[in-house]
Structures are given as C-alpha cells and as structure tokens.
Inverse folding.
C-alpha cells in the first residue's frame, strides 16, 4: 500500500491491542472492509509489547479470547496455566518478595474463568490460602506467538488491512460523525464507522469528545468511594521484564549511575512473578512508577526512568534473595504497561455502583461483557471491590462516545469512572469490548443505523451465538464450548 493513498472502507479501527483486535475481527467477519491502524510493529498492545503476557483469572474471557487460546495450543510451549505457589503474605512457605505463580499442567482454560473470590478473599488471611491456591489460575503465553495468531485471524477474513508502525495524527468530525482520519504515513482513511482502541483516547480527543483524567470527584458519578474533589492521580505504571535461568549463579553487573538504594519510594517493594511454559519468568513490579509521575514525564522519559528502576530492583533482588542469582534479565518490554491515562465521556459511564451491585443488581438491558476483577489501583485509590457482588456487566452504551453517531470506544479509555476503570481493564475484558463493538457495527451497517440505534437484544443474541458469556455462571452451551481442550 502506497503512502499518501486515500482508502475508503467500512470501518477504521485505531489501535491494535486487545480491544482493537476484537473490534477489527468481529467487523471483518461480518463482511465489512476494515482498516486497522497500530502504532507498534506487531499487534497485541499491552499483551505483547507491554509485557503483560498473562490473562488474569476473570469470569468473562469467552468468545475471541478462547478462540485465540485454541490457536496458541497448536504451538509447543506457547501457553499454559498457573497456580499460586508462594506469596509474601505466607511466610510459612519461606520468605518471598512478592507473589509467585507456577505452571500447573492439571489446569485448563475453564479454570481461568472461575471467579476466584466467593466473598472477600485476602492473601493476608491464613484461612483463605487453600481456596486461593485452588481457585486462582491465570493463562501465561508467548507474546510473539499471540501477535502472530492475531494477525493470521485477521488475514483469514479477507476483509482486513492492517497498518502497523502507523499512528493517527489527525481526525475530523461533523454533525456528530467522524468523517476521516489521517496517519503519519500519509494515508487518509474514510469510513462509515470508527473505533477508538488506542488506550489513550487519541481518536476521541482528536474529534472533540470530552476526555476525563485522574480521580473523578464524588459528585460527578455519585460514587461513595470517590474523593470529594478531583485529583490528578491515576493507576500505577509497570515496565515488565523477563528472566531466564543461567548456568552459573551470579549477581549481574549494573551500569554506572544506578543507585544501590531505592530512590522512588521507601524500599524496593514487591513484584508478581509468573512462570512461562518454557520455564522463564515474567516479573511485574507493583508498580514501577506512579501514574502521576508517568503523566508528568511523558512516555519517552518514563521508559528511560523505568528501565533504571528495573536494573536497581533486579540488583537488590539478586543481592537480598540468592535464588535470583540463578536467573538473568533476557528481555525488557519495549512499552510500559499503562493501566490508566485518559477516559472518554460515553453515553453511560460504568461506575462503582455497577461493580458493587453485580449482575443481580444491575438493570441494564444492553450488557455486552462481564468481569469480576477487583478495583485494583496500585496505589492510586486504595479501594477494594466487594467480592460478594460477584460478576458485573458492562453496558454497550459505555462504548458509545457521547454525542457521536459512528464512534465506539473499545479499550481502557471507554466509558468508565476512574474507580470502575481500575477494575474493568483486563486484556480479555478489553477483547470482549472489542468483539461487541465490531459486532454492533456489523448490525448497524446492515440497516445504515447510527450506533446508538443498534438493538440491544440483537447485539446480545449475536454475541451469545459467537460464544460470549453474558451471564455468570456461564450458560451450559457456552460452558461446554470452553471446556473443549483440543
């Protein structure tokens, strides 16, 4: 494809992470011509270049996530499931500087969809330890293979053009409709429908949507857990790294200028450690940088600072915990794992009340994805979701940018309050938002509807037919589908 070319299509998807992939695949399978624009060289976003090579336990990972899992199973050592092994809150297992999860061959994809907390479970409560080991199982995968299978699935539709290494630099809108976007490669993309899956609401901001940042004041969404006044605090940032076993134990050398003492907080803190199928370890510092510092520094400077922190952290671990001298850093994620930056004002804003009401207490007729992750803010808020509420649903209206007739948001920048966003941000949930977005566009295109006019019942029926569970526990026909390990 030549630079400077004008491309006419049915759908433009900005961003090729989990949400963008889901939106593009669903729309392409509906027979629509799709152009997907991704700034990095591969698809997957946080799940690949961001190093988040683990899908945490969540009740909502059906549909496209399960289909991807089945593709990953074709490759040796490409995917596996963990069980919790050691944790810093369990000193009887030996001192450990965080949480350790190891491959468990007995576990299946279905195990990763089991809600791990009936009631309020805590690592700090000794009586919860057996249940957490029994119920918490995430999926760890090789990122390069995930990215390859995403690209193959899109290519197999015959309806998707993927522009990697490309950024959206301009967009125009008129009368509540996006008209076109332009890229840094000179492409002009004209479409009937658009999806913002950039994570930072880049497309939404460019066309004048209202953008939210930081903690919302209590009065905005009437959330009891929100602060009285707005703040600039956002969720923490992590730069994930990978370590591999080495033949001779040693403390790795560190470049000059890296302090021996922690300079960004009191002590080096802890990390989440997940084992890959090949025995390597994925290390996720919790967090590497506070969200407010990331916003102040900007992405480029933040990456440099996070890398310095990783090297200092790793030297501390190898010095204080000799078992880490048997490993060496072999990869540092090229992009930061960003949990929260900007959010878009949408037709409905998911909020704390939705999470605490759960599916049993919500009355939305247009729920298109479910989740049960806690409000997990890595230092930004300090709240925890009442796990007694169980799973909650995300309404389709939370994907419709306020006042826009042909623009959906399918990423962490969708219609969430700051508190809700701290829960509704996992990769599989984002992929299901994308699947719903692409499916909705398919329905809208059939009758040339604005996106707000898509019938909720028809959208939910099509998602159900595609294997997406919209209730918890799962309907038997979907449970049977995701129990198949072939």
């Amino acid at each position: 494809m030549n630079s400077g070319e004008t491309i006419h299509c049915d759908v433009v998807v900005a961003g090729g992470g989990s949400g963008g992939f889901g939106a593009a695949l669903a729309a392409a399978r509906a027979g629509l011509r799709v152009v997907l624009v991704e700034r990095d060289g591969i698809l997957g976003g946080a799940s690949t270049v961001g190093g988040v090579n683990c899908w945490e336990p969540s009740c909502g990972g059906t549909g496209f996530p399960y289909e991807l899992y089945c593709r990953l199973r074709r490759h040796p050592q490409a995917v596996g499931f963990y069980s919790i092994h050691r944790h810093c809150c369990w000193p009887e297992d030996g001192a450990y500087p965080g949480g350790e999860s190891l491959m468990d061959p007995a576990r299946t994809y279905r195990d990763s969809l089991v809600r791990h907390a009936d009631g309020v479970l805590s690592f700090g409560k000794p009586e919860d330890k057996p249940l957490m080991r029994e119920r918490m199982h995430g999926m760890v995968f090789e990122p390069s293979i995930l990215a390859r299978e995403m690209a193959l699935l899109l290519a197999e539709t015959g309806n998707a053009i993927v522009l990697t290494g490309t950024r959206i630099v301009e967009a125009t809108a008129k009368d509540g409709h996006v008209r076109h976007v332009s890229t840094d490669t000179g492409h002009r993309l004209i479409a009937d429908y658009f999806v913002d899956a950039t994570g930072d609401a880049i497309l939404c901001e460019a066309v004048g949507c209202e953008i939210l940042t930081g903690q919302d004041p209590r009065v905005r969404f009437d959330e009891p857990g929100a602060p009285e006044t707005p703040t600039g605090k956002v969720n923490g940032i992590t730069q994930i790294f990978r370590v591999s076993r080495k033949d001779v134990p040693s403390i790795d050398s560190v470049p000059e200028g890296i302090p021996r003492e922690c300079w960004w907080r009191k002590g080096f803190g802890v990390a989440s450690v997940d084992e890959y199928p090949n025995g390597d370890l994925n290390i996720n510092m919790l967090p590497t940088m506070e969200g407010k510092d990331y916003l102040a520094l900007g992405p480029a400077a933040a990456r440099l600072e996070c890398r310095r922190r990783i090297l200092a952290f790793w030297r501390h671990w190898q010095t204080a915990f000799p078992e880490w001298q048997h490993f060496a850093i072999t990869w540092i994620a090229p992009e930061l794992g960003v949990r929260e930056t900007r959010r878009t004002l949408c037709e409905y804003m998911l909020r704390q009340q939705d999470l605490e009401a759960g599916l049993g207490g919500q009355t939305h007729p247009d729920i298109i994805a479910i989740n049960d992750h806690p409000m997990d803010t890595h230092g930004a808020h300090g709240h925890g979701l009442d796990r007694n509420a169980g799973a909650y649903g995300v309404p389709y209206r939370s994907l419709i940018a306020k006042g826009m007739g042909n623009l959906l948001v399918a990423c962490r920048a969708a219609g969430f309050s700051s508190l809700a966003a701290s829960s509704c941000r996992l990769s599989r949930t984002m992929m299901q938002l994308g699947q719903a977005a692409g499916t909705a566009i398919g329905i809208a295109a059939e009758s040339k509807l604005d996106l707000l006019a898509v019938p909720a019942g028809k959208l939910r029926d099509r998602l159900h037919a595609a294997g997406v569970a919209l209730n918890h526990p799962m309907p038997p026909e979907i449970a049977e589908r995701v129990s198949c390990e072939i």
